[in-house]
Amino acid sequence: MQFERLAIPDVVKITPARFGDNRGYFSEVFKDSWFRENVADVSFVQDNQSLSATPGTVRGLHFQLEPFGQGKLVRCIQGSIFDVAVDIRLGSPTYGQWVGAELSADNGAQLWIPVGFAHGFATLVPDTILHYKVTAPYSAKDDRGLLWDDADIGIEWPFDMSAAVLSDKDKVQPKLADLPPSFHYAASGETV
Prior knowledge:
Helices cover 6% and strands 39% of the residues. The protein is built from two helices and 15 strands.
């Protein structure tokens, strides 16, 4: 597996090797010991999957409060997405900044998004399926969000987002300036 720390180095793009022949390919997409040694020493407790039928579907930007803060390992198993992480750790040198990567079934790439980041994605093609591992279970009372098109964050979505398909909840999430402090950045780089 190859990995690349993005412009916000806590967010890591992982590209598993594929070994192919005339039948197709084989790929080891997750190995606990490798992940702990190279990316983050965490335990995953739940796997989630979503289907978005329409291109331009935006899900996010989502996060959960502690003690149910979620680190996410995201991969696209059908179709293609533009995946985004926004640093919401108060005191972080990259607070309010975002990074993004295209994840697709074709490129096999994954994105590690640690606790302290809001996560979202936009689908690029029809019938896109996302699979992700999380470090904490879903908690409805701790579920929070951030407005996906907040101009102060300035995410450069890959297409005209005026026709974005959104849930009612995601249309009315708060802007970063209105978000209560949810996570704090420690000098060690840890989220507290």
